[in-house]
Specification:
The chain has about 350 residues and is mainly beta. It has 3 helices and 17 strands. Strand 13 and strand 14 form a beta hairpin. The longest helix is centred in the first third of the chain and has 22 residues.
């Protein structure tokens, strides 16, 4: 055997051994790709897909701290002094929304929880919980009589005695948006949890099988908007009508809202002011990119007058401070004269 044959044989043996070892080697499996949370932009900002589903989820809310002073804001002071002159309120608001596409339109749910402490006495409350599908809403939320026309401005205390409507009701509601600015809504509402004192004073119970009925019609013209809503309290066999107009031009937005009670001798579930009529006026003015001036004034047929003025200042995005001054003048039945009260609120709020 010559040197050349020996080298070729050695090389062949080494190749065979190397191939055998490679065949027996353990190859580590590559890790499966991680499923990151996907953004869902079909229903607005803030939604993301629940992993493994086609349902979108959104979580939000706010943390709020209020310092309130004066008799007008629920203090137990009285002429001559005594009692507390100010109070505190801390609140955590949690909002959870879901949405998904179906053959009947978007299927949505919404729930809102309040965790609140008034003067260090805490409570938990379900503020809203409902389901929506194809224009139909079923669940617990603000009555259509209040929700359709909105709050009385952007002040913290937008009413005291001149109340523009009830709030939480379990209901079945249908809303139709024509797509050309017009919208229509109809609701049947459970009135068994009403707290209107005048209903009980009249000796008419609310807890029965008949619901209240509310209908609404509106038009949105972009820079201006008109809305009208009517509610019928079946227990009182009376009701109320409200109309509202809004206009925005430049840095200014204004609104005017008026209500009429079908029987001004008594309040009902929808007419919660005194007398036949009530008026709410207000507006906002953008002072700077961070500061907005908000004001409102309300009055009714019962000689109640109330007003509020504040400045909402955004320190950083999501965090605002709002100082507000409040005023109320109403008829004092005990003294047989007009009574005036002043007060104020300092609010700190972080939205997320």
């Amino acid at each position: 055997m010559n040197i050349k044959s020996l080298l070729l044989g050695s090389a062949a043996a080494l190749a065979a051994v190397s191939g055998a070892q490679a065949a027996d080697a353990i190859v580590a499996a590559e890790p499966e790709p991680m499923e990151y949370v996907r953004v869902c932009d079909a229903f607005g900002t803030g939604y993301f897909y629940i992993p493994g589903t086609e349902t979108c989820l959104k979580i939000g809310g706010y943390v709020r701290v209020d310092f309130q002073g004066g008799d007008i804001n629920g203090q137990d002071t009285f002429p001559g002094g005594g009692g507390d002159s100010w109070k505190t309120r801390s609140r955590f608001n949690l909002r959870v929304s879901t949405a998904s596409d179906t053959e009947y339109g978007a299927l949505k749910t919404y729930a809102e929880l309040l965790f609140q402490a008034d003067d260090n006495q805490s409570e938990t409350e379900l503020d809203q919980a409902y389901i929506e599908l194809g224009g139909i809403l079923v669940g617990y939320t603000d009555t259509l009589f209040t929700a359709f026309t909105g709050d009385a401005g952007n002040t913290i205390n937008d009413f005291y005695d001149v109340d523009y409507g009830d709030f939480n009701r379990t209901q079945i509601r249908y809303t139709y948006d024509a797509g050309n600015g017009f919208s229509f809504a109809l609701a049947v509402e459970d009135d068994s949890d009403t707290d209107s004192d005048d209903v009980w004073d009249a000796g008419v119970p609310d807890d029965n099988y008949m619901p209240d009925i509310v209908a609404a019609l509106g038009y949105n013209g972009g820079a201006w908007q008109l809305r009208a809503v009517g509610g019928y309290d079946e227990s009182m066999e009376e009701g109320a009508i409200k109309v509202r107009g809004d206009v925005t031009f430049g840095q200014v937005s204004l609104f005017a809202m008026a209500g009429w009670n079908t029987d001004g001798e008594f309040q009902n579930n929808y007419a919660r002011w005194d007398g036949d009529w009530a008026v709410w006026l207000g507006g906002s003015y953008s002072l700077t990119e961070k500061a907005t001036l908000n004001g409102s004034v309300n009055f009714d047929d019962g000689d109640n007058v109330e007003a509020a003025l504040n400045v909402a200042y955004q320190i950083v995005p999501g965090f605002s401070i709002i100082p507000e001054v409040n005023y109320r003048s109403d008829a004092d039945e005990k003294l047989g004269s007009k009574a005036e009260d002043w007060g104020g609120v300092l609010r700190f709020q972080r939205n997320f």
